[in-house]
Automatic annotation (TrEMBL):
Coiled coil (residue ranges): none
Domain MaoC-like intervals: 18-106
Top-level taxon of the source organism: Bacteria
Protein name (Swiss-Prot/TrEMBL): MaoC family dehydratase
InterPro entries noted in UniProt: Fatty_acid_synthase, HotDog_dom_sf, MaoC-like_dom
Family statement drawn from the similarity comment of this UniProt entry: Belongs to the enoyl-CoA hydratase/isomerase family.
Amino acid sequence: MPDVPRYSAVRVGDRLPRLTHPIRRYDLVRYAGASGDFNPIHWSESAAEGAGLPGLVAHGMLTFGVAMRLVNEWAGRPGRVSGCGARFTRPVVVPDGYDGTEVVVEGVVAEKLPGSRVRIDLTVRHGGEKVLARPRAVVALDD
């Protein structure tokens, strides 16, 4: 288990380790089963193209979940995230084949908050382009 960051040692501007996470089509199937989101744009090429998309796309909440994985791993223990949010701005297109695609997540401590909490601002990219707007999380740390 990674070291748990302590509030007193964390500084605004501290960077979280970069996370590169693969997403493959079978991840879309697994996520659909777990979430109950069987929208055909996640499994049918013709439905995705009919919706004006360039191909099958990852579920927005799957992409956001990948972003939150970085925060949870940095926080070192489950249950430390007390709030999170983002807006979905671009689809993550998942091509056929074993390699799929990658989502790259970076984070920075943006603000120290009362109650030994910090706000983490994230950058989430696919193909070099941001796919989430204002992704952030609030994390409670020990002092």
